[in-house]
Amino acid sequence: xxxxxxxxxxxxxxxxxxxxxxxxxxxxxxxxxxxxxxxxxxxxxxxxxxxxxxxxxxxxxxxxxxxxxxxxxxxxxxxxxxxxxxxxxxxxxxxxxxxxxxxxxxxxxxxxxxxxxxxxxxxxxxxxxxxxxxxxxxxxxxxxxxxxxxxxxxxxxxxxxxxxxxxxxxxxxxxxxxxxxxxxxxxxxxxxxxxxxxxxxxxxxxxxxxxxxxxxxxxxxxxxxxxxxxxxxxxxxxxxxxxxxxxxxxxxxx
Length: 254
Known about the structure:
Low-confidence stretches: none
Strand order of the largest sheet: 6-7-8-3-9-10
Structural class: alpha/beta
Order of helices and strands: EEEHEEEHHHEHEHEEH
Largest sheet: 6 strands, mixed
Helix content: 25-40%
Radius of gyration: 18 Å
Number of strands: 10
Oligomer: single chain
């Protein structure tokens, strides 16, 4: 197996805003290892979500190269899944139909798509809600369906753009635990964007800190704390405080 699943070489991206060029990302070099859980943190506007969109193939960089399993990314790929802050379920489709939608255009026949969707629902513990509609789900359940949809293609890399930020703290904690369980079961590489430094330290093998204006790689910190991790542990609190200190310094220098 390759020692890297994703490689970014000198990736830059800019936008035109009100007639003015705004540099969102500059010279990003980054490598992700197979099966690794990586978290990306930084101030609002530092380009975290832009970076995810580039990796997902939803946008193209102005300069540099992005390789997934050694192959340049050229548009969206089923090898790379993406989960947003909003579950984005279609309200007129049932839970299982929403998941099947992610398999549209694949080689699978209808019966196979249904079987894969149900297996993915089982992965997140929602088999009994296959026939329910999004309006009948709690926020946490809807986001679990979004996780099931993200995993149904069994992607090599799953991108998560603040998937739990809209949830209450108790539901968020439960889904963090659920995500770790699924990650351990599936072995999928994860790249999580989050504003929550505690979440990053709790979940990730490595935390990447982006500096703002323009977004650029500042620090990559391996999180060597044993699993399962406790939010209340002094070791976790110390790592969290260190990252927050870096973020404060970057904000002051911006």
